[in-house]
Amino acid sequence: MAAKKADQDRKARIAQMQREAKAAERRRSLIIVGVAVVAVLAIAGAVTFSIVTDDSRVPGGELKSLGVSASAASCNAITDDPTTGSGSHVGPGTDKPDVTSVKYATVPPTSGEHFVTPEYPARQFYTADDRPAMETLVHNLEHGYTILWYDDTVSEKQVSDLKAISREANDQPQAQQKFIVSAWDPAYGAFPSGKHFGLSHWSADAKDNTKQTGHRQLCGNVSGEVVATFIDAHPRTEAPEPNAQ
What we know:
This is DUF3105 domain-containing protein. The protein has four helices and six strands; from the N terminus they run αββαβαβββα. With 245 residues, it is of the alpha/beta class. The chain has two domains: 53 residues; 171 residues, no CATH class. It has a six-stranded mixed β-sheet. Helix 1 runs parallel beside helix 3 and helix 3 runs parallel beside helix 4. The longest helix is centred in the first third of the chain and has 52 residues. The chain is elongated and about 115 Å long. The N and C termini lie far apart (103 Å).
């Protein structure tokens, strides 16, 4: 009986050791798979990040081919706004030094009081972390810039499209280095429901500078075709101060 009991105990220990060995092997396999998945995700994230942050890797092509088509962009018609604030400066260095924020009449603004100095030299693309003050960019509008604003719902693909659109738009004679893409500051109001991108321009009659109009267009998606049509209709030369930088 003792020998039989010992044999049973030995077999039980062997079975237990086999189970433990299999469990350890499963854990090793899961760890290897987990490490591989993390590595793949890290590589994918790095590739995506490099595409979004490296301007040399944004989409190529003509302006009208970038983003979605005009028909798929869910845009409102271009609106014309009355203007205010031409040549009216606020903030440091002015007779209104305490004015650090302006309440603009439209979202996005197409005119209004602004800071003394525009953003110059202006970059083509700004994020929420590095965008100039709204009052600074409104001064850019007065100088003939068109600004394409985007809200915080933007996807990585749309960021790439926006960078490409800004690059190509700045090469067009209608904009010629006077086109900026900037993250929208929600402190200045909310875009209408379903709209996540907005174009704005401040124009003036070349023969009568007192005749000024603001232009806006709000869209649900990014469209180079829409941008091309907008800057064709409202070029950099149509501005209160078109020859200023």
